[in-house]
């Protein structure tokens, strides 16, 4: 007789976990699905169908982006050119057509190298965004009236930004492998459709989403390269390296963090160094402009300044905003090291960017794009996401109605100052609400919609299922024993019990 193989000699193939379907897992998604026939059944969309989640979500994103373009139609047909207040009353303002002439693209001026007429002197955007703007001007047909060229420039940029929107939706869809349908939150986000073509922020958002996808695939160098490029397009992406440092500290993943940091620094320098060397004054304009810019739209600082008899100066606000941001960074670091279970990477990425938005001295309406993919990855809960989006839509309408009020003269069309302050408050409360929900998920992981379904950190890459090597508080004093989570040893105790409870 042949001897029976031992249990140790016969590895048991782990069963692939089933995908999470929001129409079964989320009450709001299930209720909303009644509009298209109800929740997904067990046999819907088999693996052989062409209609995969990625393709469906990409098509939905294109459709919503197109609706956003339609929403800008009143401005495209004249409001950008013939009336200052009508572009605000129709809530269809965009920087893109105005800066085509205002930043010298119509005259063929080279960003950062050629001086601009007026007080601005140089283009006030980071280098990669400036290259994006310049590339769009190359594709814009010359000749004809200034209005026709500005219309073409906006359409060319809209096409390029739509590609960025698709990249964002696809990257978020592929980051959480079991939660592909969460990408619909990106595709259907009303704030994305409304603000996508106000400015060029989608470029940095797309690069950041691609970077997070690379990190989730345990490719830290590729993550760093893409994050460095994102930082060369907009300043905020570099903030994500802060919480990643603390996460890697807690998990002992220093080599991965070093690769990410090196890749980010290298790609940022590769893009910026040539302009720094040959056009330093033009290159530095973005940074000096950000420092010298006074309190502006959307921030709680504006409410403070407009309701104060002795408002603080720009330098004072810069100092106080920096201190507030540092306090938030310290709080996020403390939360990371003391949480009963190591927070997910996406949760901390959302919190750090949200902290920057909440403490900054300006909040342009398109800044919501920075948070949309991070919010979906941090807390893919339809109710909370839609509450936050509703608050952002209120602010989107509020700022344009306020500008309509200030530009309509004695007609006073729009929203007065007090009403605009309430719109700012709605935005602040909505963002804080989502932050509170994410912090709650970190402190009580059993409430986290991602971990409740058995995952650890799908966007965490090398952090996913990793054992803690450093923590503070109860998490640093686990009881005896170990548990296994997706092939990785996890200390037993508060953390281990929660991990084991989700298996």
Entry keywords:
single chain, 503 residues, mainly alpha, two-stranded antiparallel sheet, 22 helices, globular, disordered N terminus, transmembrane
Sheet/helix structural class: mainly alpha
Output the number of helix runs: 22
H/E topology pattern: HHHHHHHHHHHHHHHHHHHHHEEH
How many individual domains? 1
How are strands sequenced across the largest beta sheet?
1-2
Subcellular location: Cell membrane
GO molecular function: hexosyltransferase activity
Region (Disordered): 1-25
Protein name: DUF2029 domain-containing protein
Give a short summary of the structure.
The protein is an all-alpha fold. It has helices spanning 22-25, 27-32, 53-71, 73-82, 86-89, 95-102, 127-139, 146-175, 183-187, 190-195, 201-216, 220-233, 241-251, 254-278, 280-292, 300-306, 314-338, 345-359, 368-378, 382-407, 417-443, 494-501; strands spanning 482-485, 488-491.
What does the model show?
Belongs to the glycosyltransferase 87 family. It is a multi-pass membrane protein. This is DUF2029 domain-containing protein. Keywords: Cell membrane, Membrane, Transferase, Transmembrane, Transmembrane helix. The protein has 503 residues and is mainly α. The chain has one domain (50-466). It is 60% helix and 2% strand. It is built from 22 helices and two strands. The protein has helices spanning 22-25, 27-32, 53-71, 73-82, 86-89, 95-102, 127-139, 146-175, 183-187, 190-195, 201-216, 220-233, 241-251, 254-278, 280-292, 300-306, 314-338, 345-359, 368-378, 382-407, 417-443, 494-501, and strands at 482-485, 488-491. It has a two-stranded antiparallel ribbon. The longest helix has 30 residues, at 146-175. The radius of gyration is 24 Å and the shape is globular. It starts with 21 loop residues before the first helix and ends with a helix.
């Amino acid at each position: 007789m042949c001897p029976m193989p031992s249990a140790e000699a016969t590895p048991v193939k782990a069963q692939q976990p089933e995908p999470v379907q929001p129409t079964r897992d989320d009450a709001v998604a299930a209720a909303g699905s009644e509009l298209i026939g109800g929740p997904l059944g067990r046999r819907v969309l088999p693996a052989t169908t062409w209609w995969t989640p990625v393709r469906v979500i990409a098509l939905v994103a294109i459709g919503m982006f197109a609706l956003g373009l339609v929403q800008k139609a009143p401005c495209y047909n004249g409001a950008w050119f013939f009336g200052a207040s009508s572009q605000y009353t129709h809530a269809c303002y965009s920087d893109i057509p105005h800066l085509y002439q205002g930043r010298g693209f119509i005259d063929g001026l080279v960003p950062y190298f050629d001086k601009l007429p007026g007080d601005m002197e140089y283009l006030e955007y980071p280098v990669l965004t400036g290259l994006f703007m310049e590339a769009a001007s190359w594709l814009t047909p010359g000749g004809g009236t200034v209005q026709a060229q500005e219309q073409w420039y906006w359409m060319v940029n809209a096409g390029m930004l739509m590609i960025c929107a698709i990249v964002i939706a696809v990257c978020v869809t592929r980051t959480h492998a079991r939660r592909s349908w969460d990408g619909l939150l990106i595709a259907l986000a009303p704030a994305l459709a409304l603000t996508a073509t106000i400015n060029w922020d989608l470029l940095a958002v797309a690069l950041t989403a691609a970077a997070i996808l690379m990190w989730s695939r345990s490719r830290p160098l590729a993550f760093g390269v893409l994050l460095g490029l994102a930082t060369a397009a907009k300043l905020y992406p570099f903030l994500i390296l802060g919480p990643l440092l603390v996460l890697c500290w807690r998990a002992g993943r220093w080599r991965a963090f070093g690769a990410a940091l090196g890749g980010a620094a290298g790609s940022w320098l590769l893009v910026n160094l040539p302009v720094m060397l040959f056009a330093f004054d033009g290159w530095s304009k973005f940074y000096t402009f950000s420092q010298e810019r006074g309190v502006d739209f959307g921030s709680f600082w504006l409410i403070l300044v407009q309701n104060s008899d002795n408002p603080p100066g720009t330098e004072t606000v810069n100092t106080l905003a920096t201190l507030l941001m540092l306090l938030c960074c310290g709080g996020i670091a403390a939360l990371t090291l003391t949480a009963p279970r190591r927070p997910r990477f996406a949760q901390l990425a959302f919190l750090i960017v949200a902290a920057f938005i909440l403490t900054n001295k300006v909040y342009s309406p398109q800044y919501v794009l920075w948070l949309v993919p991070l919010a979906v990855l941090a807390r893919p809960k339809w109710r909370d996401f839609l509450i936050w989006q509703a608050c952002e839509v209120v602010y989107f309408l509020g700022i344009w109605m306020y500008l309509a009020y200030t530009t309509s003269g004695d007609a006073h069309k729009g929203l007065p100052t007090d009403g605009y302050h309430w719109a700012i408050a709605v935005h602040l409360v909505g963002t804080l609400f989502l932050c509170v929900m994410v912090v709650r998920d970190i402190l009580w992981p059993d409430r986290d919609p991602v971990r409740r379904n058995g995952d650890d950190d799908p966007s965490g890459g090398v952090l996913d299922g990793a054992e803690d090597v450093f923590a503070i508080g109860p998490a640093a004093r686990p009881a005896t024993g170990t548990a296994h989570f997706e092939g990785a040893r996890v200390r037993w105790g508060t953390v281990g019990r929660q991990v084991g409870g989700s298996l």
